Known about the structure:
- The chain has 9 helices and 5 strands; from the N terminus they run H-H-H-H-H-H-H-E-E-H-E-H-E-E.
- The chain has helices at 12-19, 26-34, 43-54, 57-61, 65-69, 76-98, 106-117, 154-164, 184-198, and strands spanning 124-130, 136-144, 168-174, 203-211, 214-217.
- It has a 5-stranded mixed β-sheet, sandwiched between helices.
- The model has no long low-confidence stretch (mean pLDDT 85).
Amino acid sequence: MGITDWPVGERPREKLLQRGASSLSDAELLAIFLRTGVVGKSAVDLARELLTRFGNLTQLFAASEKEFCAIHGMGQAKFVQLQAVLEMSRRALQEEMRNGDALNSPAAVRDYLQLLLRGREQEVFLVIFLDAQHRVILAEEMFHGTLTQTSVYPREVVKRALALNAAAVIFAHNHPSGVAEPSQADRLLTDALQQALQLIDVRVLDHFIVAGAGCLSFAEKGML
C-alpha cells in the first residue's frame, strides 16, 4: 500500500505539518527527504531499509558515496542532496554558536560537534577558538589521526590561538570505538594543552569527546 493510501494524519508530510517534525520517527523524516520510493516499496519502506542497512541515522550520514549508492533506489543525486542537507545543518549550528556566547548555548555546541564528528572512522581533533566574550571566531579541524589515536601538537594550537587573537578555546575529538569515556592519554593531552595555553593567557573552557550517540564534557565531569 502506498503512502497516499494511508490515513491523512499518518502520512509523514501531513503529520509533520500537524504535529511538528519532532513527532516523526527517523524513518518518517528520512522518507520525507527521499520523497518517493521504488517499485513495491513506499518511501517509508525504503527509509526503513536504509536504517536497517546502516544501523541508524548517524551511520547513514557517514556512509560513503559508494556505500550509499549500492542501495537499490539510491543514487548520486540523492547522495549529493543528503550531503548538502548535512552541511547546511552544520553551518546553521555554527552560525548559532558564532552569534552568541558559546557557553550560554551548550546545546548548539554539542549538536554541532555531534553532527560534525559522529560516525567518522578516523580520530579528528577540533578546536573552537573564542573571543573574550566567548563568541566563536573559528571552529577548525586541526589534527587527523588513525582509527585509534591522533597526534596533537600543543605548539600548533598555541600558534593558531595567537594568530586568531583568541581568548579561550573549546576542544573536541571523536572516539571511533564508540566509547565516550576519556582515556589516560586524553587527560594528559588536555593537561598539556591547558598548561601551554596558560602561558599566552588563553583559557580552556571545555573538552568534548564525541562517541556514538554520546558527547562527554570534561568541564561537566569536573576534569578541567
